[in-house]
Amino acid sequence: MGYMWGRMAKAALAKAHATACRRAKITAFRVHDWRHHAASWAVMNGMSVPALIGLTFVGGIGPGQVYAYRAHGPFDPARGDRFDPTKVLPAR
Description:
The protein has 92 residues and is mainly alpha-helical. The chain has three helices and four strands; from the N terminus they run H-H-H-E-E-E-E. The protein has helices at 2-24, 31-44, 49-56, and strands spanning 68-69, 75-76, 81-82, 89-90. A two-stranded antiparallel sheet has the order 1-4. A two-stranded antiparallel sheet has the order 2-3. It starts with a helix and ends with a strand.
């Protein structure tokens, strides 16, 4: 059950991201970029760094370690949707 909800949440996030980027006419903003944007805003608005680390920690990933995602969703460049599960998206 948890796996299914996780996939549904990821699909909803990917769709919301694609819709936001399409409406804002942004073409080079990855889902991963939201993480950095949100972290910056959280600290600027008073969240402590230890609290932020607890919120954003990814188990098994060390500082500077390279990791990537696969994005599943529609492929319709005219609408701004460019999901392709055969491609790996580096999280830089």
